[in-house]
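Each field is listed here:
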Amino acid sequence: MDKKLAVIACSGGMDSCVTTAIAKESYDVALAHFNYGQKTEKRELQAFNDIADFYGSDKRLIIDFSHFAKIGGSSLTDDNIKVKDADLKNTEVPNSYVPFRNANILAACVSWAEVIGAEAVYVGAVYEDASGYPDCRPEFYKAFEVMADIGTKPETKIKIITPIIHLSKAEIVKKGIELNAPIHLSWSCYQSSEEACGVCDSCAYRLRGFQQAGVEDKIKYKVKPNYL
């Protein structure tokens, strides 16, 4: 019997890569990617396509969310705002937060899921990031699932699944290895497309996860600080 279908929001980063591997255990996957004017847009798109090729997915959708660059307010989309070096003890919303981005992403994924008959939308949100990003909190995704149920056709039932939301980065690395996820194809850096900078928040969380897991990250870094 054919597997049922799920839409995966796949940025091309490590978290969405491992989320795709988890979804593949239960579903055929349709991969959605979003270009929103981020500084590493082309590199993230390459990572997305590499991951989609790895899984042999012929169902992929690339969506232009360039309105985020016009809205601004984030160091990821505004050239006038510098991407700050990592502060892993920070509890404030960092300037890399893209205002309400994940709601936009979820809305598009639910729209596509309804059209293609998918019964779930997978998102690689991580609660470890929630101290900075309000749209990474579990209650946000629970609320969005309720809203999607109200706002779609009566026969449409779409689950919002966040399988790694309560995992640490080290646990995500270990899960990815367990599932043979192509983490080496993923890209997490916020500001560099050639070699990962190693010092932005995203690089720091990723590197610390690998260091805590006792595993070498195979992508190239300009510098590899010890974050333990």
